[in-house]
Amino acid sequence: MSLNRDKIKQSVISKSDYYDVVIVGGGASGLGAAVDAASRGYSTLLLEQHDFSKGTSSRSTKLVHGGVRYLQQGNVSLVLEALRERGLMIQNAPHLVRNQSFIVPNYDWWEGPFYGVGMKVYDMLAGKLGLGPSKNLSLEKTIERLPTLETEGLRGGVIYYDGQFDDSRFAINLVQTAAEQGAHLLNYSKVTGLIKTNGMVDGVNVKDMFTGEEQKISSRVVINATGAFTDQVLRMDNPEAKSIISPSQGVHLVIDKKFSPGDSAIMVPHTDDGRVLFAVPWNGKIVLGTTDTPVETTSLEPVAMEEEIDFILKHATQYLTGNPTRKDVRSVFAGIRPLVKAGDGKDTASLSRDHTLMVSDSGLVSITGGKWTTYRKMAQDTIDQAAMIAGLRVNECVTENLRIHGWLKNVDLTDPLHHYGSDRVGLEKLIKEDSKLGEKLHQRLPYLKAEVIWSVREEMAMTVEDILARRTRALLLDAKASVEMAPTVAKMMANEMGQNKNWIDEQIDQYKNVAKSYIIN
Predict the structure, then answer these.
(1) pLDDT digits (tens, 9 = 90+) for 455-493
(2) Is residue 45 a contact partner of residue 23, using CB atoms and an 8 Å limit?
(3) Would you call 92 helix, strand, or coil by DSSP?
C-alpha cells in the first residue's frame, strides 16, 4: 500500500471515535510502538512533528550491536537483550541489516588476550543468534584485512562480528509495516498540547505544519516517544515536571573508502575520553565516530562542534595511515542521545543506555533512552504498559517474527537499489516505463532518479530534505553533492506533487540551509 499523506489525514479527521493508542514521535521508539500496537489489533495513530526519523534515529553510528562496551561495564543483562534483538533484526529485515566484521587492533601485549577473552564471552552470550566466532588475528592477517592501519607498534588484532544497517531506511520500512498492520501515521504533524478529562490524558491537540490547521484527537492512551524532546511533552502534562533527559551529542564524520579499503570495520576500545571509536564501512564510504558531549539544549538540527571534529580526526590519524584531514570529510552529522538522568548525571558516558518506561499520574506513558538495536523490545514493553493503562483487551505481542516491509532474504549489494528489498521490483518498473528514471542524480553517488518518484508516491516524502537526507542518504554520504542534486530533486518532486516554481525555490533554499552544517569549511 502506498503512503499518501492527504488520504491518511482525511481518515484521521473523519474518525469519529477514540483511537486505542496515539503515539507522539516518529523515531525508532515511536515507530516500533506503532508496529507493535497495530499488529496486536489496536487502532493506532502516530504523529511526528517533522519527518520520520528526522532526529536521533537517522543519525546513529549505523550499527546493530550487542554492546561490547556494556560488557566492559558489566551490564550483562543489557548485552544479552541486545544480542537477542540484533538476531531478530537481521531475521526480520535482512535487506537492511547485515553481518559486519570488526577488528580491534592490539598495540599493547595485554590487549590481545584481554579483548580475545572479552569477545569469547560476547560470542557465548549471543548463543545461536551469534553472527560468527571471534578470534585472535596475527599481525599479518590484521594488516591483510586492514591494509591502511597504522603498523607502528601493532601486534595483531581480535576480529568479532556485529550487525550494521541503514537507520532511516529501516525507519521508513517500519512506517510501511505499521501502515500495513492498519496504523495511521502522519509526518509534519506537531502535537501542541495534551487533552485531559478528570485529570487523565485522553487525547492530543495536533497542528499540521504545512497548513497550520489544528485539530483535537481522542485516544484511550497517549505515548510520549519523542526521544530528546521527552521533557517538552512531560511539561505539557505537568508544567512542574522535572526534566529526566540529559542530552548528549554524538558526532560522526564521513570520509572516502580509500582511507580504509578493507571490508572490516575498526573498533578502537579506548580513546582519550574513554569512548569507543569506530571506523565503519557504510554505503561505499567510511563513517568515523563517535563523540559523547553533554549539551544544554536539544534541537532538530544539532551542529557538530569544532572540538568534536578535531577529536575524531586526531584519533583517525593515529590509526589510519592516510591521515584524513578536514578537507577529506564528505559530511559531518550530529545526533542527540536522549540519556536518562541517574543520580547527578554528570558524566554522560556512564549514564544509562538502557530504556526507561514511565507512567505519569495522568496516565501519559513515556518511553525514552535505549537504542536502535533494542527498538522492538522497547516497543513491546511500552505497548504492554499502555494497553494496561487504557484497559485494552490483552493481546500478545507478535513482532518477534514479524517481517519488516521490504523483507528479502538475499540482496545483491552491488545493486544501487538493494536497500529497497522487495520494493526494488516497483522501482525497476518505473525505470522500464521511463528510461530517464534510470539515470543517476549525481555522478559521485549511487542514487537514481526513480528513487525521487518512489519516495513521493510510496514513502510520504514531502520535502527535498526528506529525500536527500533520509529516503536516500546523500546528505550523509556527500553533503556537497547532495546540494548539487537539490534542484533536480525539487523539480521532479514539484512535478509529481503539483507544486509551483515558488515551492521549488523555497525547497532548494531550505535544503541548502540545512546542508551547510554538514559541510566542513
Answers:
(1) 999 999 999 999 999 999 999 999 999 999 999 999 999
(2) yes
(3) helix
Per the model's pLDDT, the better-predicted residue between 67 and 517 turns out to be: 517
Asked whether this chain's domains 5-54+169-244+349-401 and 57-161+246-339 adopt the same fold, the reply is no
Query: All 3 cell numbers of residue 402?
Result: 514479524
* H-state helical runs in 154-294: 167-180, 230-237
* Class of the domain covering 418-518: mainly alpha
Domain ranges in the chain are 5-54+169-244+349-401, 57-161+246-339, 418-518
C-alpha–C-alpha distance, residues 31 and 209, integer Å? 20
Amino acid at position 346, single letter: K
**Which cell numbers hold the place of 70?**
556494556
**Average pLDDT over every residue of 206-224:** 98
pLDDT mean across residues, the chain:
94
b/e per residue 365-377 (b: at least 16 CB within 10 A): bbbbbbbbbbbbb
Residue 504 DSSP SS3:
helix
Q: How do the residues of the chain divide into helix, strand and coil, expressed in percent and rounded to 5? A: 40, 25, 35
SS (H, E, C) 430-478: HHHHCHHHHCECCCCCCCECHHHHHHHHHECCCCHHHHHHHHCCHHHHC
Q: What is the pLDDT of residues 230-271, one digit of tens each?
A: 999 999 999 999 999 999 999 999 999 999 999 999 998 777
User: How many residues are given for the chain?
Assistant: 521
* Residue 141 near residue 158 (C-beta atoms within 8 A): no
* Candidate CATH numbers 3.40.50.2300, 3.40.1360.10, 3.30.930.10, 3.50.50.60; the one for domain 5-54+169-244+349-401: 3.50.50.60
Amino acid at 36: D
pLDDT in tens, 180-212: 999 999 999 999 999 999 999 999 999 999 999
CB atoms within 10 A of CB 175: 24
21: amino acid identity, one letter? V
Amino acid at 159: I
- Cα(162)–Cα(169) distance, integer angstroms: 19
Domain 57-161+246-339 is found in CATH 3.30.9.10 = yes
Contact 139, 302 (CB under 8 A): no
Q: Which residues pair with 101 in a beta bridge?
A: 161
Q: In angstroms, rounded to a whole number, what is the distance separating the alpha carbons of residues 130 and 120?
A: 11
